[in-house]
Write the structure tokens for this entry.
Amino acid sequence: MEVRVLSSALQLVAWRPSAFGARNRHAAAHASITARSRIPRSSVSSVMRDSSTILLVRKFILGTLTRAWNNPRLRRALSFGSIVAAITVLGLTVLHFAKAGFPLDGAEPRLAGVAGAFFVLAYALKAYGWQQLFRPSDRPTRLALAAAGGAASVSGAALPGRFDDVVRIAVVRRSRTTPAGVSTLCLSLFMLGLIDTAALLPFSTAAAIGGSFSPAARAVLGVVAFAGVGATVLVAFMPRLGNSSRLARFRIVRWLVDRTTPLREAGHAWLDVAASWAMRATGLCLLLSALGISNSIPLAIAFLTAASASAALPIAPAGGAVTQAGAGAAILIAAGVPFAQAAGFAVAAQGLFILAGAAVLAFAGFVHGANRLSLRVAPAAA
């Protein structure tokens, strides 16, 4: 009986607040508003069902892709298809130059050969710089990184822009000595792009100040220099993301802080990448002399800056090498070089750089094959 009386009193307080004053009326109004704003259970259950369905679909797709990739027959078929595609592209390229003539036909052989050697050295220095952007426990070998750079330049003759990064990741992941995952490789490529842009800052500034270019060409060099300043600031700021308590709450920020390159290693990477750009600029200057166009260092740096800036496009309208050659030829024409000479030099420079990348890739493949053969022969000899 007492329980019934108590429940009746509670109901009276909840539903008839006027009998107990204005204070109870405000409390009852707030309780009614809160009750109306609650989400119905049916909506919550539907959202939970949708999220569980999405998780099941994701697990099914990822599981299917994982099982397909672990299938040896499929992997062999993909490897065979890639080899056939590479041989086809190489054959078509050889037939094209056999009919139309290679742009280096009229070049001085010694200077062209030395320029190619500088291009190969540029790949090696770029690999040294790229390796500094990994944590010590995740660093791939320099040979794998150099092979990735060579494969990206070769594939850039046919694939659109930014697909060369996919080629880099695939080549590095194929190396058995690579502990880094795909996400770490993607972050390292992002940092490498920033370091590339920052390392171009002194070159673009020197070319804009010291070269005799048109206002349009100076504007392009100025934009690249401004981008280099922004990239430098971003590289210096990223290790300090964890100092902000507001940003540290996000999981992606904590992940970046654990894997972002410290300033000391970033400085070493900048020096290596800047040396790589210097080797490439020297090779371009020698190639200009070999083709009898000019021996101007600012002109070579301007070509290098324009071609490198075009590589930052998200999606190039044609192959990456074609886009870089077009941008380099455009700035040469803006600098006063005749159209025929500018176009011929752009094609020759990109072709020689691709040949240097193919040489680096072939050397890495030879070393990799020799190491695997020695591992198979050693147990048999024992």
